[in-house]
């Protein structure tokens, strides 16, 4: 029969083995030293600066600005002056537009003159004006620059080399006018 001390020794041995087994099973491994990079300090991105883009204000068109300065000088050199008028398309007044008639208003009355015009126009108003002009006998032509509406050649008082008299050009939110189709080439508005 084992002695009480032997039982106690066996119990302590079993307890020691159990403690050792528990310690080995649940113990975390020893930490190993690893190389880590030093934290990088980054500066915050600067706040974007919001600046308002202010479009330069386009002045209103005038008889001296819708055509080249050299043309104005040429008219003035022969004694011509200009008469500015409202821009009408039939009954429709285009309030922000202008029609300019260059002539010798001090001399005897004649049909020796030049007319130029420019006005902003909405697509809807342009379509309505084109329909009204064609219904009144004007002729429509589609071109690379836009839609040309020109007076009937049989009623033209003054025509260019190609036989065109008064002509409107509808393009890009604007309508231009000249007493001949070739005259439209002189209109440079907006600059």
From TrEMBL:
Listed PROSITE patterns:
PROKAR_LIPOPROTEIN (PS51257)
Q: Where is the signal peptide?
A: 1-27
The answer to whether keyword Signal applies is yes
Keywords, sorted A to Z: Signal
Asked if the record carries the keyword Signal, the reply is yes
Ranges where the record places region Disordered: 28-47
Name-wise, this protein is Uncharacterized protein
């Amino acid at each position: 029969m084992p002695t009480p001390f032997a039982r106690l020794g066996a119990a302590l041995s079993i307890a020691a083995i159990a403690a050792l087994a528990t310690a080995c099973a649940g113990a975390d491994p020893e930490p190993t030293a690893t190389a880590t990079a030093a934290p990088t300090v980054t500066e915050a991105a600067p706040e974007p600066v919001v600046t308002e883009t202010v479009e330069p204000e386009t002045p209103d068109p005038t008889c001296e600005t819708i055509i080249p300065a050299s043309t104005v000088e040429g008219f003035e050199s022969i004694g011509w002056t200009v008469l500015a008028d409202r821009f009408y398309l039939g009954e429709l007044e285009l309030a922000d537009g202008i029609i300019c008639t260059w002539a010798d208003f001090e001399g005897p009355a004649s049909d020796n003159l030049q007319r130029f015009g420019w006005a902003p126009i909405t697509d809807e108003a342009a379509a309505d004006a084109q329909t009204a002009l064609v219904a009144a006998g004007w002729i429509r032509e589609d071109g690379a620059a836009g839609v040309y509406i020109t007076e009937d050649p049989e009623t033209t008082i003054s025509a260019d080399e190609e036989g065109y008299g008064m002509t409107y050009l509808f393009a890009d939110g604007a309508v231009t006018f000249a007493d001949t189709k070739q005259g439209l080439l002189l209109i440079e508005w907006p600059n």
